[in-house]
Structures are given as C-alpha cells and as structure tokens.
Write a structure and sequence with these properties.
single chain, about 375 residues, mainly alpha, Glycosyltransferase, 2 domains, about 60% helix
C-alpha cells in the first residue's frame, strides 16, 4: 500500500511540476512584459514632432547662412578679418567675462555698445558650430563664449531704446541655444529663455507692426521650439500670416512697395528685412502643421518679384527706397538674392523666377525684366 501510494505521489509530482513551472514562467513573462510596456515613454505628439523639425531646421538655416557667406559673399580679406576678430575677442576677454573696449554704461539709443558683447558671443558660437571653421569645436572658443555669456546674464544690460531690449538682444541670443544646446548650463539656458520672453506678441504694443512684428514672431517661434510650446508657435505663425497682406497701414502695399514708420517708402530698408525674415520662416515651416498658406506665399512673392526686383540694378539698389538706412555702409541687393534663394524652396508658381533673380544678383548681370514701374 505504501509503495503504491508513493508511486502515485511520484507520478502526480511528475505531472504537476512541469505544469507549475509552466505557470511560473508564463506569469513571470506577463509581469516582465507589463513592466517593459510601462517603462517605455509615450511617443511625442505630431505637434511636438513638428516643433522638433522646426528646431532642427532653424539650426540648419543658421549654419547655411554661414556657409553661404563663406562660399560666395565674403572676400578672402573679409574672411581673414572675421577670423582675426574672433581671435582678438579670445585674447582680449577680461577675467570677469567682459571686453575692455566696450562701454557698458552707454546711454545712447543708437549704436549701443553693449549689444556688441552679444554679437561677439554669437560670432564665436557660429564659428565653433560650423564644421569648416578653423574654430570648429575649439574648447577655448567655447570657454570664452560661456564666460562672456555669464557676464551678460549676470548684468542683464538694458538699453534706452526699446528695440534693443525686446528685439535686438533676443535675436542674438536665441541662436546660441539653437546652435549649441548642450553646451550651456541649465541656469544659463533658463536665463536666456527669460530674456527671450521679453519679445511677446501682446497686440497692444504700438511698435508691433510690419517688420518689427516679424522679428517678435521669429523670437517667439524660436523660444517655442526650445520649450516645446505648441500654442505659442501657432500664435506666432498666425500673426505673421496676418501681416502678409496688402491692406495694412504698414508693411506691403497694393503697389508692392513697403511702408514702415507711417507712410514712409522703406522697400530697401525694413522691406529688405521683411523679405529675408519671412522666407526663412516659410522654408523652415514647409511640410509641417505651420506651413504658410498659398495666399501668403503669393503676396510675399509678388512683393519681392514685382516690387523689390524692380529696384535692383546688378547688385545696387535704389537709394530712394532705403529710408534712413541710406547712410549705412554696405547697402546692396544681396539680401534680395538671399530671399529669392529661400523662396526657391517654398512651393509656388514662381520658383523659377526666384532662381533667375537670385542668379542675376549673384552674377551682377541685368535682370530679365523690361519696362517701368511706379510706386504711389
């Protein structure tokens, strides 16, 4: 009896043990699968993915501007001068992160010295980021940029001119975070983002018209890509679209001229910045949820080709369209060439005309247009 019982128990164990092992393995697999599913982060929403695309394209655009200057726009002497200026900035930087030749207490509204400090940082970071630069990933250049940025952020200089505070400074600061996002401390990045927030789209501000508004919007979009703020980006793109019209007191007019500061003919002044800034943003937004409407592309294209193009002779531009900028050195039609090159990559019915216009300016040859054009 005992032997039979033992035999039965052994048979029962032999049948039960594999089943128990199987149950344990299946249970363990289910728990491990559950843990792995929980641990996986949710994929970013399509809207956030679009912001990532914008941020990447901002960086490509910034590096592309440098590449274009290197290949076509700067003479050998100018390139040497740029390199020397960066080297001079490196050797002249003070222990506290300032430069002795700059007047940080200047209380003038134009040619404000302190903003040169940020311009030098940006120039250095561009050189550090550009693969063909002799300063590419140079640790000394990066260390200089970090120290100089700390000096600026610790002092946070304020100009008597609102434009410097709300546009000029942010325009020079946001590329630092786009070009070299991993090279700044969290404190530096947070402070830069706070300064960028001074450029906002509060519509009660009387200065937010024409090109000034486009600068504000560009800064807001750049900040939105850095903070994953989809709502802010949508608002900024919508404000730009609203400005690409011919029925505003300032901006593009019905005759494809450009007004700023009231009814002042500024097609080769603020109008140049307008036709440079918006094509950059149009190209960056192609294929995303923020892509510009066909009507906006058409209105801007007509302004460039049926307005500004008629002001160009080879690489010279009509002086009467320059407003108060006529006295500034280096005024020419190169910005229109850049705008046309950008518009070649924006889907429209006039891409070949943009390509032809850009080539005419690049080669300093006559435009393939004939006739007269009047503005009223």
């Amino acid at each position: 009896m005992t032997s039979e019982t033992g035999k039965a128990s052994a048979e029962l164990s032999s049948r039960t043990f594999p089943r128990a092992v199987t149950i344990f393995i299946v249970t363990a697999f289910l728990f491990s699968t559950e843990r792995s599913v929980v641990a996986e982060p949710a994929p970013p929403s399509p809207a956030l993915q679009n912001l990532t695309v914008l941020r990447q394209r901002f960086r490509t655009e910034l590096l592309g501007q440098i590449d274009l200057q290197e290949r076509e726009e700067l003479s050998t002497d100018a390139k040497k001068k740029q390199i020397q200026q960066i080297r001079s900035s490196l050797t002249a930087l003070q222990p506290d992160g300032s430069w002795k030749d700059l007047n940080y207490t200047a209380n003038v509204s134009t040619n404000w010295g302190p903003i040169v400090h940020i311009a030098r940082i940006l120039s250095a970071v561009q050189a550090w980021s550009y693969p063909k630069s002799p300063f590419f990933h140079d640790p000394q250049i990066l260390a200089m940029s970090r120290k100089a940025l700390d000096f600026w952020l610790n002092h946070d200089y304020v100009s008597y001119n609102w434009w410097n505070n709300e546009i000029g400074i942010p325009l020079r600061l946001y590329p630092l975070l786009i070009l070299a996002p991993e090279q700044w401390t969290d404190a530096q990045k947070q402070k830069v983002l706070e300064i960028l927030a001074r450029a906002n789209l509060d519509e009660t501000h009387q200065k937010k018209t024409g090109q000034n508004l486009i600068w504000y919007a560009e800064i807001v979009i750049a900040r939105a890509t850095l903070k994953d703020d989809v709502a802010a980006a949508r608002k900024a793109f919508a404000r730009i679209e609203k400005e690409i019209t011919r029925d505003q007191p300032e901006g593009i007019q019905w005759d494809n001229s450009f007004f700023q500061h009231g009814e002042v003919f500024q097609s080769a002044a603020y109008g140049l910045d307008f036709s440079m800034s918006i094509p950059r943003l149009m190209r960056i937004a192609v294929g995303t949820d923020f892509q510009f409407s066909k009507n906006s592309v058409e209105v801007l294209g007509n302004f460039i080709l049926d307005g500004q193009r008629w002001l160009v002779r080879r690489q010279a531009i009509e002086i009467s369209a320059m407003g108060r900028t006529y006295s500034r050195q280096g005024k020419n039609a190169i910005p229109i060439m850049r705008a046309c090159r950008l518009m070649v990559d924006v889907p429209s019915t006039r891409q070949e005309e943009f390509r032809s216009c850009a080539e005419s300016i690049r080669l300093s040859t006559p435009m393939p247009i004939h006739g007269n054009r009047s503005f009223w």
